[in-house]
Amino acid sequence: MKQHKIFKGGVKVPHYKHSAKTATTIMPIPDIIEIPMQHHIGAPCEPLVKIGDSLLVGQKIGDSDKFVSAPIHTGVSGKVKKINTVLFPNGSKVKSILIETDKNQEIHPDVKPPIINNKEDFIKAIRESGLVGLGGAGFPTHIKLNPPSDKKINYLIINGAECEPYITSDYREAIENTEDIISGIGNVLKYLDIDKVLIGIEDNKPKAISELIEISKTIDKIDVVSLNSKYPQGAEKMLIYALTGNIVPAGKLPLDVGVIVLNITTVAFIAKYIKTGMPLVKKRITIDGGAIKTPSNIEVYVGTYIKEAIQFSGGFKEVPGKVLMGGPMMGVSQFNLEAPILKQNNAILAFNKKQSVLQEQTACIKCGRCISACPMNLMPVYFDIHNEYKNVDELIKLDILSCIECGSCSYVCPANRFLVQSIRSGKELVRARGNKK
Amino acid sequence: MNNKLSVNSSPHLKDYISTPNIMLDVIIALIPATIISIYLFSYMAAIIISVTVVSSVLFEGLYNMATKQKQTVGNFSAVVTGLLLALNLPPAASSIWLGVVGSFVAIILVKMIFGGIGNNIFNPAIAARVFLTVAFSSQMTSWLSPGVDGISTATPLALIHNGIITSNLDLFLGNIPGCIGETSALALLLGLGWLLIRKIITLDIPLTYVLTVMVFALLTGQDPIFHLLSGGLLLGAIFMATDYTTSPMTRKGKIIFGFGLGIITMGIRLYGNLPEGVSFSILFMNVLVPLIDRYTLPKSFGGLKKKNA
């Protein structure tokens, strides 16, 4: 097996992969789903439907003419009940389409395998599928797969690290959908000129590694690499370094070092879409956390309310104190259970009251643990101090915008400093300065 | 379910480490030195240690009450300061009141009025020891040889000034005159082992410090083992120079810090009027920490250049 490099810093987090062993169950269609017009990084979509419209499965219901965006489809048939507004936890308001489902699931005539003759067709098909990065960030995939023609791509990296505790949805994809992963890679290789494919998976998932090795052993171009289980192994820059030894310069993209990174579920979806033409309307999510009765993976329609997904999984065993969309290290805490599940969502975690207690901040003792833990080799302790005094020059000098907000610094801080929070606030100060100039 | 959910910035997971945990680990690491000091210097050591620790905690508690600040004695840092200060005192009866005065200096003057834990410029125990050495020099040098009926004597570092050599084995075990906690290298090394296992400190500072001292000794024709084991070098290198707040945060900074400590310590030992230079070297290097931190900023991963100054 190919050797890999070990990135500096990072933390050993507990794995808590309770849901790894159980196969994915499929959640029945709920009575109502609500699909927001933004799941991805970039411009929100505009609704293409109006109140009272009848919808069929796979129908496009939102799109945008902006470059960085991805269309949105419905996975259920039914009637548009309302054009709503959802408040995201980051404070932004986004339009959403409330659909009353009829459960007939009649398929829209547009849903048919795309005809692809060349790279342009391929990129267009990916865009029409509504695919975004399914690892959590939600960057539109068709943009990633369309690098400027002067950039030579040496490596396609498939990110199966899944370094966040609890989450096993990518792991289940690797076990349950191994063939789609390999044929999705094949689709990408067919239309893009790429020398080598590296599938990176943390060594705490030996079964996924062995199955992928088994299925890809006849393909010379594909190497499966077992990575050490260290958080944030799945962060793009860390993963690229671990697998290729290349360091993405500050402010640059993986493309600039000749790399495209796709999440393992994302690449598997490409194969599914090319086979069936069914856009991205369903998602496997991990349901876990101290307040959850049965940790499991379930397949849900995008737009399903968190509350109903949890109920289907077996419900709560304790009163939830905090509900997260995503993993415990980078996930976003939700203010209510009526939030709809998004495309790029890979887990819903419900913490019990005890897990939700926020430790009080105490004085920084300058121990330097945050510095040792930072995989980007930054100095979180100074971000905390300079943010407090709004010292923007220092924040810029210390390269605050390079922070990937992985949370390793806060994780190890003995004084419970809210370092990531300070860094986010500091980044806003820096951006506000930039906007003024 | 009408139940409020808490919302906060990620991460939502935290490891077990906390300031009180760290302080407890330091206290555990000091237990061997404490036990040996009581064994060597009998009940006198026990009294000095108890009085100094209790007065340190009291001073911190009273200061917080007087200034209406949040009580901080629960983080055990005052216990560590008191214990370290006690281990830095000579095993004589006068050390009982020296411990109280020293605690006042360490806790109130050096730590609390600078903003409390994390904000002090000098290591409190070291600053107090230096204050006591200067202000009460005869009491601070009333060395006794180990034992219940210890007789007045001089320390190995003072003796070697007069050409009298102490055996390295005695130095290692601690069977020598000196401050109550600094004599037994063995006990201090056990403490070092604990701190390393628990990942409280790294070897960067102690190792650079000690190696610099030993190389300096070799180059000037002295016995490096003698210089390693005598005086407060190991106590200082393991427990005092590694104090988080008053030492650099980056690895490079720690190595520069350790090197500076070694040079100053040996400079004082060999060319100064004082027999021992560990305390003064730590105090001096403490002042340089902000400067060292500033000039050892690491290059960010993928960053183009170092961001100095």
What can you see in these coordinates?
The complex is a heterodimer of chains A (437) and B (309). With 437 residues, chain A is of the alpha/beta class. Chain A has helices at 119-128, 141-144, 169-176, 178-191, 206-216, 236-244, 264-276, 306-313, 369-373, 380-388, 392-397, 408-412, 419-436, and strands at residues 25-26, 32-36, 46-47, 54-55, 60-63, 72-73, 78-87, 93-101, 153-159, 194-202, 222-227, 259-263, 282-288, 296-301, 320-325, 332-334, 347-352. The mean pLDDT of chain A is 94. Chain B is mainly alpha-helical and 309 residues long. In chain B, helix 1 (19-66) crosses helix 7. The relative contact order of chain B is 0.11. The model of chain B has no long low-confidence stretch (mean pLDDT 89). The chains are: A alpha/beta (437), B mainly alpha (309). The interface between A and B is large, with 67 and 38 residues.
Short summary:
The complex is a heterodimer of chains A (about 425) and B (about 300). With about 425 residues, chain A is an alpha/beta fold.
The helix-strand sequence of chain A is EEEEEEEEHHEHHEHEHEHEEHEEEHHHHH
Class from secondary-structure proportions of chain A: alpha/beta
Extended strand count of chain A: 17
Largest interchain contact: A-B, 67 and 38 residues
CATH architecture of chain B: Orthogonal Bundle
Beta fraction of chain A = 15-25%
Shape of chain B: globular
Distance between the termini of chain A: 51 Å
**Count of extended strands of chain B:** 0
If you consult CATH, what is the topology of chain B? Ammonium transporter fold
Number of helical stretches of at least 4 residues of chain B? 12
Count of discrete alpha- or pi-helical segments spanning 4 or more residues of chain A? 13
Low-confidence stretches of chain A: none
Output the CATH class name of chain B. Answer: Mainly Alpha
Strand content of chain B: under 5%
